[in-house]
Design a protein that fits this description.
Strand order of the largest sheet: 1-2
Distance between the termini: 16 Å
Structural class: alpha+beta
Strand content: 15-25%
Helix content: 25-40%
CATH superfamily: ATP-grasp fold, B domain
Mean pLDDT: 94
Largest sheet: 2 strands, antiparallel
Number of helices: 4
Radius of gyration: 14 Å
Number of domains: 1
CATH architecture: 2-Layer Sandwich
């Protein structure tokens, strides 16, 4: 399962996530993330630039593929927070915890 949505230190409190079952497409990730309560922020608010949702969706698809790859032996992967830059400028994983089996 890949969860995409509001993160940071309050991720467990607000529970604003979209769940995706790998394998899934970039369109699936885009559609599901658009259903999050924070989705309006992706378009840019109060003079902010739109966020790079495309890079987030690309990352989600790659993470889903990694979770399905038996050679990777990834049991659990927690990337939080993932910061989105302006559209076309990517995203950055600030912290990651990986458990392999």
């Amino acid at each position: 399962m890949v969860a995409v949505g509001d993160g940071g230190k309050y991720v467990e409190i607000f529970r604003d996530t979209a769940l995706l079952l790998p394998p899934f497409s970039k369109d699936d990730a885009r559609r599901r993330s658009a259903g999050c309560r924070i989705a309006p922020l992706f378009a840019g608010v109060r003079g902010e630039q739109p966020m790079d949702v495309e890079s987030l969706c690309d990352a989600a698809v790659k993470i889903g593929a990694l979770m399905l790859d038996p050679a990777a032996r990834v049991m659990s992967l927690d990337l939080n927070p993932v910061l989105l830059d302006s559209a076309g400028k990517g995203c950055v994983v600030v912290d990651a915890v990986v458990f392999q089996g």
